[in-house]
């Protein structure tokens, strides 16, 4: 289980964005996180993927209390949480091909790059698309590559921070279908952050509200 | 019948890649035709990359130099396509057609306040306005902004507020047609509703809105008419209620099926590359997944049936009225 307990955190001293927030995700479960712009959804996401150290409160992953965040987080814990961000164009190196983007986590962790093909198939990126660079594909196609990258190390938890906000309805349905399969086949625990209630209604097992 | 404000006929846009198109030709818009009438909110919908934004940019003469534009687009007796830059700058942009650009915040000058930019725009477009700052406040109020927010710089504005600043800029010249390119991307649902409601309120008796969007839920909320675009072509056009409730083209049906409150089913496959479009119906390769529609005639252009237009999938029960183009 990935659990945040009494998280207090912000960006400016004395101005907490989250003031005592609890959230639990069990493997195989999809938790929706809803709330208006600026309520701290993404801040909580950053804490859960170990990118932001909370001022107060505790983050526990499978029973282990997390003490190191960002570069201090042990690789074994960091790679247990995958993350997909809102804007795919800001989340990739524009010089790499989609194949290289998806391969990055594999190579960085000593796995063969041959795993890329299976991942790409899983998200529906076919042969020739993998050889293109980000400016040669649509937002929806690039976000599929970002999802494949997040799934590369078979994370036990997956944080989707407004994964579908920039893409059209068909791409949204396609991305969510892949994440749902991942949750049911590999028992991945998913945090689905969105401001679209209609989307969370069909995607999440339960919905938590912030703000 | 209300007045036709903007009449677009057989509009095509192509881009040559490489020298003289040696690296291929992108067919971004192919023979698009539609009318925008006073009082209408026309939603132009379709997947990313189908040519919606290029169509809009063509109307304002904002395409890059390697674009080849054909067809006609008339407004107030003026031919917009191929008009001189001077005519576009002095008569069209901001005065006849106001543009709310995609990702509005990135179109604001980062080093000047929203007020400075709005007042400058009012002074440039409206010589008849004596008190530009007061007029700017009025514009802000019209789009639901507190005039006090105008003292902020663009980086201090949230996405929704920046969107409304862009809307007030587009309204400064009192254009009869407002063109909004993806006005709802990245906004949360209440803000989406606020923005599209504001747009709809602006299409009064003598004005109209052309809203480019891939957000069908937003289109359903405010549009009076819907034009569906697929792989550079318009495939269905008609009154919003009729088209969204009973789509005739399987692509329109597939878009509705993809919505979370529909069947939430992605459209299988990818749209064809705009450099390698088939001559006839471009949806055929994805069509078999959409049973229950009349068989495809393979035709690329739309035909008219009563007040609706559809390509390649004529309804069986309604007599044809004639081709659009």
Entry keywords:
heterodimer; A: about 210 residues; alpha/beta; Rossmann fold; 5-stranded parallel beta sheet; 4-stranded antiparallel beta sheet; 7 helices; 9 strands; about 35% helix; B: about 325 residues; 9-stranded mixed beta sheet; 9 helices; globular
Explain the overall architecture.
The complex is a heterodimer of chains A (211) and B (325). By secondary structure, chain A is of the alpha/beta class. Chain A has a single domain, classed as Rossmann fold, CATH 3.40.50.300. Chain A has helices spanning 41-48, 75-78, 98-108, 115-123, 139-151, 169-185, 197-203, and strands spanning 2-12, 15-25, 30-34, 56-61, 64-65, 81-84, 157-161, 189-193, 206-209. Chain A has a five-stranded parallel beta sheet, with helices on both faces. In chain A, a hairpin with a 2-residue loop joins strand 1 (2-12) and strand 2 (15-25). By secondary structure, chain B is of the alpha/beta class. Chain B has one domain: 3-Layer(aba) Sandwich (Rossmann fold), CATH 3.40.50.300. Chain B has nine helices and 13 strands. In chain B, helix 6 (189-202) links the parallel strand 7 (177-181) and strand 8. Chain B is globular. The mean pLDDT of chain B is 90. Chain A binds chain B through residues 36-38, 86, 126, 138-141, 165-174, 176-177, 195-199, 201-203, and chain B through 47-49, 158-160, 185-191, 214-217, 254-255, 258-261, 264-267, 270.
């Amino acid at each position: 289980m990935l659990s945040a307990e009494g998280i207090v955190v912000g960006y400016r001293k004395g101005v907490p964005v989250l003031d005592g927030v609890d959230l639990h995700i069990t493997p195989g479960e999809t938790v929706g996180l809803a709330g208006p712009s600026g309520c701290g959804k993404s801040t909580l996401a950053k804490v859960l993927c170990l990118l932001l150290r909370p001022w107060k409160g505790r983050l526990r992953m499978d029973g282990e209390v997390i003490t190191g965040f960002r570069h201090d987080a042990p690789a074994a814990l960091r790679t247990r949480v995958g993350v997909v961000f809102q804007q795919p164009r800001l989340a990739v190196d524009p010089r790499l091909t989609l194949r290289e983007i998806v391969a990055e986590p594999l190579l960085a962790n000593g796995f063969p790059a041959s795993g890329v093909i299976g991942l790409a198939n899983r998200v529906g990126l076919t042969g020739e698309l993998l050889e293109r660079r980000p400016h040669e594909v649509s937002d929806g196609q690039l976000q599929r590559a970002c999802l494949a990258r997040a799934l590369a190390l078979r994370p036990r938890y997956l944080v989707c921070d407004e994964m579908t906000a920039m893409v059209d309805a068909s791409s949204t349905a396609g991305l969510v279908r892949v994440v749902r399969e991942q949750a049911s086949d590999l028992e991945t625990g998913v945090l689905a952050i969105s401001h679209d209630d209609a989307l969370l209604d069909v995607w999440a097992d339960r919905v938590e509200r912030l703000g | 019948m209300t007045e036709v404000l903007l009449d677009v006929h057989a509009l095509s846009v192509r881009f040559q890649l490489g020298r003289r198109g040696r690296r291929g030709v992108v067919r971004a818009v192919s023979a698009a035709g539609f009318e925008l009438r006073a009082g209408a909110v026309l939603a132009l919908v379709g997947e990313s990359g189908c040519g919606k934004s290029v169509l809009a940019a063509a109307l304002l003469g904002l395409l890059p130099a390697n674009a080849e534009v054909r067809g006609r687009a008339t407004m107030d007796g003026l031919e917009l396509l191929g008009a001189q830059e001077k005519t576009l700058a002095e008569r069209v942009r901001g005065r006849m057609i106001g543009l709310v650009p995609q990702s509005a915040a990135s179109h604001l000058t980062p080093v000047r306040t929203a007020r400075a930019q709005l007042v400058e725009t009012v002074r440039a477009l409206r010589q008849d306005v004596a008190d530009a700052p007061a007029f700017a406040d009025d514009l802000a109020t019209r789009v639901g902004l507190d005039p006090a927010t105008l003292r902020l710089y663009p980086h201090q504005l949230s996405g929704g507020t920046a969107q409304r600043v862009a809307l007030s800029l587009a309204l400064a010249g009192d254009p009869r047609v407002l063109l909004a390119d993806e006005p709802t991307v990245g906004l949360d649902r209440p803000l989406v509703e606020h923005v599209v409601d504001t747009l709809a309120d602006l299409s009064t008796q003598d004005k109209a809105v052309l809203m480019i969007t891939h957000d069908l839920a937003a289109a359903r909320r405010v549009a009076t008419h819907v034009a569906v675009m697929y792989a550079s072509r318009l495939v269905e056009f008609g009154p919003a209620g009729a088209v969204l409730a009973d789509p005739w083209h399987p692509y329109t049906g597939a878009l509705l099926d993809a919505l979370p409150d529909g069947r939430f089913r992605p459209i299988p496959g990818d749209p064809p590359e705009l450099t390698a479009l088939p001559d006839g119906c471009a949806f055929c390769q994805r069509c078999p997944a959409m049973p229950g529609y009349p068989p495809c005639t393979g035709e690329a252009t739309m035909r008219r049936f009563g007040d609706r237009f559809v390509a390649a999938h004529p309804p069986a029960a309604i007599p044809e009225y004639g081709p659009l183009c």
